[in-house]
């Protein structure tokens, strides 16, 4: 039986979510299907680019969270016991 792999399978492969057995089959499919190989290479490039993205919250967001947390005791159960 010939297994047909989808783009979802390739994405799982890129993110190392496939078994050793699946890896062998997917690698064979990549070698024999140029369109799947192109998608694989694009997915690798996209993953690398996404890993370079730096995310930081705005200072005002951090301050809002800190201000909110200052209004509550560290242990909510302690407030009930007082």
UniProtKB/TrEMBL annotation:
UniProt protein name: Uncharacterized protein
Naturally occurring in which organism (per UniProt): Fibrisoma montanum
